[in-house]
């Protein structure tokens, strides 16, 4: 084996180990974000659209607004604190 092949094998192994470690650290945060967003979507599924909605309540738009606010918070306050590169886009 040439030194380039050995170096490539070593770097590939180290990169995989770093990625696994990163995912172990980030997975709990990822689960909390998904659970929080799922709770908002679950509220939306419980709306009875057959009933007349009180115009003051805003119908589903209040849930959509809540979801948009949570997504904006996650993006600006949580994900922006980490240098995630392309991995952040998958979220």
Class of secondary structure makeup: mainly alpha
As a percent range, the share of helical residues equals: over 70%
Cα(first) to Cα(last) distance is 39 Å
* Radius of gyration from CA coordinates: 21 Å
* Quaternary structure: single chain
* Strand percentage: under 5%
Mean pLDDT value:
81
Number of helices: 3
Count structural domains.
Answer: 1
Uncertain spans: none
Number of strands: 0
What is the ordering of alpha helices and beta strands?
HHH
Q: What would you call the shape?
A: elongated
Largest β-sheet summary: none
How would you explain this protein's 3D organization?
This protein has 91 residues and is an all-alpha fold. The protein contains three helices and no strands. The chain has one domain. Helix 1 (3-45) runs antiparallel to helix 2. The model has no long low-confidence stretch (mean pLDDT 81).
Topology:
Blueprint: H1 3-45, H2 61-78, H3 86-90
Helix pairs in contact: 1-2
Concise summary:
The protein is mostly helical. It has helices spanning 3-45, 61-78, 86-90.
List keywords for this structure.
single chain, 91 residues, mainly alpha, 0% strand, elongated
């Amino acid at each position: 084996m040439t030194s380039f092949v050995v170096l490539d094998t070593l770097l590939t192994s180290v990169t995989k180990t770093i990625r696994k470690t990163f995912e172990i650290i980030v997975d709990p945060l990822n689960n909390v974000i998904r659970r929080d967003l799922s709770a908002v979507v679950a509220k939306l599924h419980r709306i009875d659209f057959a009933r007349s909605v009180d115009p003051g309540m805003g119908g589903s738009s209040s849930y959509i607004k809540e979801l948009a606010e949570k997504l904006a918070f996650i993006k600006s306050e949580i994900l922006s604190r980490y240098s995630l590169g392309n991995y952040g886009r998958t979220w």
